[in-house]
Amino acid sequence: NFYKEKKREDIYIRYLYKLRDLHLDCENYTEAAYTLLLHAELLEWSEKTCALHLIPRDGEHGWTQQELKERLFHEIICYLDKGKMWEKAIELGKQLAKMHESHMFDFMELSELLKKQAKFYEQIMHAMRPQPEYFAVGYYGLGFPSFLRNKMFIYRGKEYEWLEDFILKLLSQFPNAVRMTSTARPGDDICNSPGQHIQCFNVKPVLTVPHQFKDKGVPEQILNYYRYNEVDQFQYSRAFRKGEKDPDNEFATMWIERTTYITAYRFPGILKWFEVKSVSVEEISPLMNAIETMEIANEKLSNLVQQQACDRSLSINPLSMMLSGIVDPAVMGGFSNYEKV
């Protein structure tokens, strides 16, 4: 950002490629794609000859901006495909297709692009796509370098990376650090201590439904992408009791403390982790908690019904089990407890 603001695009591009290479070494294909996209955004769809400072070191001289931008788009789409980010790959493919249809008139290339897009749409609906976990990490104590010290970050995990695996990897980078057991914000005694204290726990990304999907029956496979991508808000909920516990109905005094974290940039992006820029805390009453629980159950049920309607070959068991669990709940006193509250 510093080099971009100072108009030193030559150094800026050099660092983009260093970052891309680091990501590729770690098989972070999605982040490599977003890094390279920053270079593509400096270029125009024009026949102007590319200035030398805009060409990567291994690039050829004499390229037009359009030629280099197209080449970058193909590379980015390839990385997005490897990262199973087919929605973003389709978005960039559409831009390329429009250029070939309206400006370059290369219909053979257009044909190949449309075939790729068709494949991506198919994969969205049918391919297995494990969604990443997100982790909140706080670095507390004067033992950390200043860019980490007493700050909190949100990390995007890799496929099938669970909290314990992630923490082990994190602690291996800071062998002298102490893992904190509490998820509450630490006091000054820890923040001003000479040591290193690491706090780490799961957070849930907050879905923002795109406007074109609002109030429509959208298949779960399409919505799932937006549950874990294009997000910058994350929540952590902790149950606590307010008032005396009711022996007949434990829900009556069960409140939820919900903390919302907003990051500096949206995920996914050019890094696996971004700093938390704002934190807000709210208390959810037992009644609101009950309503939310029921809304979530309704949403799950609706998704199962949709999946069944789209593909009749699917097993009916998950739907029938959920229905019976809602109509005749056998655990925790059933919904009569909600009615009493």
TrEMBL record:
Domain DOCKER: 3-341
Domain of life of the organism encoding this protein: Eukaryota
Pfam families: DHR-2_Lobe_A, DHR-2_Lobe_B
PANTHER family: DEDICATOR OF CYTOKINESIS (PTHR45653), DEDICATOR OF CYTOKINESIS PROTEIN 5 (PTHR45653:SF3)
Name of this protein: Dedicator of cytokinesis protein 5
Family: Belongs to the DOCK family.
Keywords assigned by UniProt, alphabetized: Guanine-nucleotide releasing factor
